[in-house]
Design brief:
Helices cover about 35% and strands about 15% of the residues. It is α+β, with helices and mostly antiparallel strands and about 150 residues long. The chain has 2 domains: about 80 residues, Roll (Ubiquitin-like (UB roll)); about 60 residues, DNA polymerase, domain 1 (Orthogonal Bundle), CATH 1.10.150.
Length: about 150
Amino acid sequence: MKIALTINGEKRELEVERYRSLLDVLRNDAGLTGTKKGCDVGDCGACTVIMNGKPVNACLVLGVEADASTVMTIEGLGKDGLHPLQEAFIEHGGAQCGFCTPGMLMMAKALLDEIPKPTEEQVRFAIAGNICRCTGYTKIVEAILHASNR
């Protein structure tokens, strides 16, 4: 099936199989490998992208469901230089192995778009669906709060 969508501000037409996830479409058909494939069942948050202004697990959305949608991936977040969230993650050590980082950043972006000055509790709640095995979350939370003050 042919779908038309906007990815990171660029209109794209892609031929996709009806059964493939948006995650696989982004990685394999659009060539955007920044979105990570973790659990493939919606539990880890590594594949978080922003679709039509809302964070979604790309592994749980069919590619055909993204037809006529606007999708932002990690590649779009830093398209014109480092985003303040990316800078804050670097400054605060919010990324270690980097595997969860794209999904964390996209979830954080969605949070700050909705709540520009969140509390620590709101940040922790927002990223609760994103698993990180390296940082213990403290540095990630600090980075997001720091970015919200910029």
